[in-house]
Specification:
alpha/beta
Length: about 220
């Protein structure tokens, strides 16, 4: 049976970390202080290294949105995507996506990025679905709560999607650059490291996982 092809976003389909670009944009526009930006930079660095309590950092960021308008954040994210991110899709990404379309497999993002950025990617790349970090909203306003899709939580977030499709992790492929995604890589039948960070590169060599280069955007 065909499975689902799962793709990480930052530094996998994209040749950048979109969170870093978002923080820099917020500072330029005066919406984030340099102190707040430094805290975010430390959290992003911890994410890339697979150390530290990144979940708490992401939850703090979600709580900071409490009381803000979802429509405003969606619009800001769409503009951010168009101006700073859309042109950073890796050249080799489309061939990888097409390979799974040819196999008849649905293609899903599996990312720590927000629903709003993921929606932009899904539209442009014609993906079938998204598993991502979700912010709770009531009557168009953020509550400050949400579900983080990072590390082990990616396994938990993907499970109901796979169950609904009638497939197992063993049926699926997963492409990522990050050692923090090893929990999913170790579950899927077709793990692929794309531009892997040093720790993932070592793990891929040890496990005999394929390593791919999709070029720089």
């Amino acid at each position: 049976m065909a499975g689902i092809a799962l793709f990480d976003l930052d530094r996998t389909l994209l040749g950048c970390n979109s969170a870093t670009l978002w923080v820099k944009r917020q500072v330029r526009e005066g919406k984030m202080s340099r102190f707040e930006a430094a805290k975010m930079a430390l959290m992003i660095g911890a994410y890339q290294l697979g150390v530290g309590d990144v979940d708490d950092g992401v939850r703090d960021a979600i709580r900071s949105l409490r009381g803000q308008s979802e429509a405003v954040i969606r619009a800001e994210t769409e503009l951010f995507w168009a101006e700073e991110v859309a042109h950073r899709i890796r050249p080799g990404a489309e061939a990888a996506l097409q390979h799974h379309r040819d196999l008849g497999e649905p293609i899903y993002l599996l990312t720590g990025s927000s629903t709003y950025l993921s929606a932009c990617v899904t539209e442009v790349l014609d993906l079938d679905g998204v598993i991502c970090t979700v912010f709770d909203v009531e009557e168009g306003i953020f509550t400050g709560d949400g579900a983080v899709c990072y590390g082990r939580n990616k396994v938990t977030a993907a499970e109901p999607v796979l169950q609904e499709a009638g497939v197992t992790f063993g049926d699926c492929a997963f492409y990522t650059d990050s050692y923090t995604d090893r929990f999913v890589l170790e579950r899927v039948g077709r793990p692929v490291a794309v531009h892997p960070d040093p720790r993932l590169a070592r793990l891929a060599r040890k496990r005999g996982w394929p390593v791919e280069d999709w070029g720089e955007a």
